[in-house]
Amino acid sequence: MVKGILVDKKVIVENEEDANTIYNRGKYGVIKNRKLELSLVEALYLIEKGDLEVYDENENKLEFKEFMKIASERIPRFYTIFSVYRDIRSRGYITKTALKYGADFRVYERGAEPGKEHAKWILYCVHESEEFDWKKFSSMNRVAHSVRKTLLIGVVDDEGDVTYWNTTWLKP
User: Which domains does the chain carry?
Assistant: First the structure.
C-alpha cells in the first residue's frame, strides 16, 4: 500500500517508486524532488479508491471520514470541490489545479497528457445553494476565453450529484 504523510494542505508520498506509480497511473499530483505532492482532493480520492493510506505527523492513519473533516477545515468549499473532482475523474478525465486562472481545475480530454497537451476546459465547482451573479459568470467566461479554454461549471446538489454546464461563444 502506498503511504502518504499529511503536511498542511498537501499529502507527500516520499517513496520514489510509489510516487512514480501513483503519478503514472493517473497523472495525480506533481513530482518534486523525487517525491509526489498530492492536493488534499487528490489524496482523498485515492484513499477512497484504496490506492493510498495517509498518516498524520504522529504516524496515525487517517481514515476517509477523518481525512475529509481535516481537509474541510483547511480548505473552504472542500466538499463541493471534492464532489466535482471525484465525479469528473470517475468519468476518465485528467484534472489539474487551475489556481493561476482563478478556477478550481483544468480538465484534459480523456487520454491527454498534461504538460504535452493543453487542457480543454477550465472548471469551476459550485454548490447549488451558492449565490451566483452575472458579474462572476462573465468574469469566469472571460478568463476561460482569454486562455482558449471552454468554461465548465460543475454544480453539486445536496445529494452530492454533479451537473455540468459548459459555455460557448456565439457571434450573432
Answer: 2-74 (3.40.1170.20), 78-166 (3.40.1350.10)
What tens digit of pLDDT does each residue of 140-162 get?
988 898 899 999 999 999 999 99
Asked if the model's pLDDT at residue 171 lies above 90, the reply is no
CB distance 52 to 22 below 8 Å: yes
Q: Which residues pair with 3 in a beta bridge?
A: 53
d(CA 124, CA 165): 10
Is 108 marked active-site?
yes
Catalytic residue among 28, 93, 101, 108: 108
Model pTM score: 0.93
Distance CA 166, CA 172 (A): 19
Which entry of 32, 61, 69, 118 is annotated as an active-site residue?
A: 118
Q: Give the dihedral sign, CA 135/39/157/107.
A: positive
Distance CA 39, CA 143 (A): 23
Q: Which is catalytic among the residues 28, 96, 101, 149?
A: 149
pLDDT in tens, 120-135: 999 999 999 998 888 9
